[in-house]
Write a structure and sequence with these properties.
heterodimer, A: mainly alpha, two-stranded antiparallel ribbon, 14 helices, B: about 100 residues, alpha+beta, three-stranded antiparallel beta sheet, about 15% helix, about 20% strand, elongated
Chain lengths: ~350, ~100
């Protein structure tokens, strides 16, 4: 990953006139971090709550397409790796919920927003994982795209979010490599295995490119760059992803399902075909292949776990009552012994 | 002992701040927070959430409500850089060259 280009890019690309008049924007422009107790505009706080909680939801829902393959992994080694990866995704969700809570929101409310459909999560997880190759593609492509998005977030202006992202990015690298390893193995296998990988690649390539969101010209959250939350635009990130992934695909022997894809020496980048934005909005608005299945699986898991959460609280109360009793007894004995002395 | 505020409802676990000693000889450092039913439970969860890859050798958990923070509006008073008190720094003093390193 080329970090130096992102370092050299100015933090604020929009509304440079505002800096200098607004003390908050001035702090951001000076690359100062904002911490939970600091003054911040309500719109900044709201934007962060939305972005961080949606990010958390994506990690949690992201466990579902892969979770189904844990019992079907082709070997014990692959099963162990997948278990560890899915556990990481759960952990990432928890880091991010905790970061969102520093902004004064309640975990229960955030989860309720997800379960009631008020909050969004990354649309990529509304696609099906029908074959083992899909697990490879999720790691290599989907996590690869996520890393592309997330590395600049390690420098975002809100301290708790930036710190959570640093932790997450360290772990994502394993996810991408294990995915690449699955695809690499398939591509060195039987003709059927190669075909399975190519079929999967054909299905995941375009949805992965859509993960970076709408074109900059159609994106509604431009203020995020002024606030130092979004350091690079959707189109810049998408281009970077295409540029690093095309050589990897050709190394693997996969054909990119895009007749318009070619190297543009003048730009120093790959040109690529138009994305199907109708499909993008369809999936965002709930009409993807698995939207309903994902959300209902999530709600069911949460409801099925209610007794565990209650049991833990009951157990904690019992233990704390027992400890209080014992210290009463100890207190009584020690005052007796003092009296005896 | 357990200072965690009793949960509001049976499903709500209180918030704990988590500190991890990354290796023997270093300070415990704040790494984040989590919800748990009591301190022992918080330790068990912190182990899974924050130390999956040899990130630590020891964990502290503290009920979030037990932490008192300095007031943000007193930041300027509390943490003035005290540039006028340069005599607090060793570089304020001239040591004769003959003395060498001190």
């Amino acid at each position: 990953m080329n970090a130096s280009t992102s370092e050299s890019r100015p933090a604020a690309t929009a509304a440079p006139t505002a800096v200098g008049t607004d003390p908050f924007l001035e702090r951001i422009a000076n690359d100062e971090k904002i911490e939970p107790q600091d003054d911040m505009p309500e719109s900044y706080r709201k934007h962060l709550v939305r972005q961080i909680s949606q990010h958390a939801h994506s990690e949690i829902v992201g466990m579902l397409p892969e979770g189904g393959w844990i019992t079907r992994a082709p070997s014990l080694k692959r099963k162990e790796v997948l278990l560890a990866k899915v556990q990481d995704e759960g952990g990432h969700g928890l880091y991010l919920y905790a970061a969102a809570e520093t902004l004064g929101v309640n975990r229960a409310d955030l989860i309720d927003a997800l379960h009631s459909g008020r909050a969004k999560y990354s649309s990529i997880f509304n696609y099906a994982t029908d074959t083992w190759a899909d697990i490879g593609m999720i790691g290599w492509l989907v996590d690869g795209a996520a890393i592309m998005n997330q590395v600049p977030l390690c420098r975002c202006s809100y301290g708790p979010y930036a710190r959570a992202m640093i932790r997450i990015c360290k772990e994502e690298s394993f996810h991408q490599r294990q995915g690449f390893d699955i695809v690499h193995n398939l591509m060195r296998g039987t003709p059927e295995q190669k075909q399975m990988a190519q079929d999967s690649f054909d299905r995941w390539w375009w949805p992965t490119l859509m993960m970076f969101g709408p074109h900059d010209s159609d994106s509604v959250h431009t203020q995020a760059s002024e606030w130092g939350i979004k350091r690079l635009s959707n189109d810049e990130l998408r281009q970077r992803f295409v540029d690093v992934t095309v050589p990897q695909a050709s190394f693997l022997g996969l054909t990119i399902p895009d007749p318009a894809l070619r190297w543009n020496a003048e730009r120093g980048h790959y040109d690529f075909g138009a994305l199907d934005w109708d499909e993008f909005w369809r999936v965002v608005k709930g009409d993807g292949p698995c939207n309903e299945a994902r959300l209902s699986a999530r709600v069911k898991a949460f409801n099925d776990g209610a007794w565990v959460r209650e049991a833990a609280v009951t157990h904690a109360r019992k233990r704390s009552a027992r400890a209080a009793n014992q210290s009463d007894v100890r207190g009584a004995t020690s005052s007796q012994s003092r009296a005896a002395a | 002992m357990s200072d965690a505020a009793p949960p509001a409802s049976s499903g709500d676990w209180p918030l704990f701040e988590v500190f991890v000693r990354s290796k023997q000889g270093l300070d415990h450092k704040h790494v984040g927070s989590l919800h748990a039913s009591d301190p022992a439970h918080a330790i068990a969860l912190a182990r899974d959430v924050y130390t999956r890859r040899q990130e630590g050798v020891s964990i502290w958990v503290v009920p979030a409500h037990a932490i008192t923070a300095s007031a943000v509006e007193q930041k300027a008073d509390n943490f003035d850089p005290m540039a006028s008190k340069i005599y607090r720094h060793p570089t304020f003093y001239d040591i004769p060259e003959e003395i060498g390193h001190m």
